[in-house]
Specification:
binds 2'deoxy-thymidine-5'-diphospho-alpha-D-glucose, 352 residues, alpha/beta, 12 strands, Rossmann fold, 7-stranded parallel beta sheet, binds nicotinamide-adenine-dinucleotide, globular
């Protein structure tokens, strides 16, 4: 049994599905179901006794204490977070509350639970904290990629809140001996990603004939990793990672945003051609830049490859093809997430 938090979100739900298909041991899934959490992601698990979903907050200490006591998990994998940089710029409060205060409460309960374990259960317990490459800040075009030794320099309220949580996780190991592991991963893409993020936003806007809003000059660089590969890496770290260590995870796919958007457009041109040979790329519009927009992220994933033998299975070409096909094949899922809160966000952030 493991306790997964945030397992109804994009990466968390992919992780729960992969975990049950591979490891197969039961999962308790604690998720607050914010706008980003969606039980439809887990619809294929309906009736599966190995999946126990609990709606709740990682900051609810009584609930977390109860779940730990009742289910006696051998690990906690913490995905729960506010995850969207633009939202953190418009309103940082929820980011501080969940990413910092929530993680603190979760750590406190994990510490108490771990202290009460004995023998192999005590020795084998792990707290795996899922973090981001954004904590390292922004790189220049020719700077070397982030390693695990790169100093933290977060630039957005989101990355600052993730950095704060990483520091707490580290401190709970050094001070209290909590057996922690931290992963810092680059940009994920794939099924079930909420369409506020670049790739699904571009796919859905293009299909609706709406503008494709590229921030600034479109030359900011991100490293893209297919979500299944991230989930495999987390399983590897959980199984074999050295306690107290951090592991960078990346896809080895550095691309400008413009390259990514044009790739999406080319795949849509192939799958859903527009009349008169027009390309979806004609919908690209350069819009006002994100405040404090980090220019480039790049991951040196040498440590996880050397120590744990992990390398991504998917190339960007194969992963993005699968992703575009997934969104085309799941209109009901898209419909379910692009109403209500989503409409409000798009109107507030992009105007009309
Ligand atoms: P997401 O926004 O899609 O999902 C977050 C999930 O956490 C949602 O299901 C939400 O309901 C839940 N949640 C939020 N606040 C909660 C709370 N207080 N208690 C319980 N549940 C809560 O995010 P994601 O993209 O799946 O990211 C998951 C994790 O991975 C985050 O910690 C994020 O920082 C990290 N990460 C994301 C990426 C990426 O590219 N998306 C890359 C590296 C690291
Ligand atoms: O690097 C890992 C991080 O990747 C994760 O920690 C975050 O949770 C995740 O959201 C992601 O952050 P980014 O800010 O890089 O992702 P986003 O999809 O929001 O944006 C990717 C790039 O595309 C970024 O340079 C901003 C740009 N962009 C984004 C949107 C939504 C646009 O040009 N237009 C847009 O409309």
């Amino acid at each position: 049994m493991i306790l997964v938090t945030g397992g109804a979100g994009f990466i968390g739900s992919n992780f729960v599905l992969q975990w049950l298909a591979t490891e197969g041991t039961p999962v308790v899934n604690l998720d607050k179901l914010t706008y980003a959490g969606n039980l439809r992601n887990l619809a294929s698990l309906e009736g599966d006794p190995r999946h126990c979903f609990v709606r709740g907050d990682i900051g609810d200490r009584a609930l977390v204490a109860h779940l730990l006591e009742a289910h006696q998990p051998r690990a906690i994998v913490n995905f729960a977070a506010e995850s969207h940089v633009d939202r953190s710029i418009r309103g940082p409060e929820d980011f501080i509350q969940t990413n910092v205060v929530g993680t603190f409460h979760l750590l406190e309960e994990a510490r108490a639970y771990h202290a009460g374990l004995s023998g192999p259960a005590h020795a084998g317990f792990r707290f795996l904290h899922v973090s981001t490459d954004e904590v390292y800040g922004s790189l220049g075009a020719h700077d070397p990629a982030f390693t695990e030794a790169t100093a933290y320099a977060p630039n957005s309220p989101y990355s600052a809140s993730k950095a704060a949580s990483d520091h707490l996780v580290r401190a709970y190991h050094h001070t209290y001996g909590l057996p922690v592991l931290t992963t810092n991963c680059s940009n994920n893409y794939g099924p079930f990603q909420f369409p506020e993020k670049l790739i699904p936003l571009m796919i859905l806007n293009a299909l609706r004939g709406q503008a494709l809003p590229v921030y600034g000059d479109g030359l900011n660089v991100r490293d893209w990793l297919y979500v299944d590969d991230h989930c495999s890496a987390i399983r590897r770290v959980l199984a074999h990672g050295r306690v107290g260590e951090t592991y960078n995870i990346g896809g080895g796919n550095e691309m400008t945003n413009l390259e990514v958007v044009k790739t999406v457009c080319a795949l849509l041109d192939e799958a859903r051609p527009l009349p008169a040979g027009r390309s979806y790329a004609s919908l690209i519009q350069f819009v006002e830049d994100r405040a404090g927009h980090d220019r480039r992220y790049a991951i040196d994933a040498g440590k996880i490859e050397r120590e744990l033998g992990f390398r991504p299975a998917e190339s960007f070409e194969s992963g993005i093809r699968k992703t575009v096909a997934w969104y085309l094949d799941h209109p009901a899922w898209v419909e379910s997430v692009t109403s209500g809160e989503y409409v409000k966000w798009v109107a507030a952030h992009y105007g009309t």
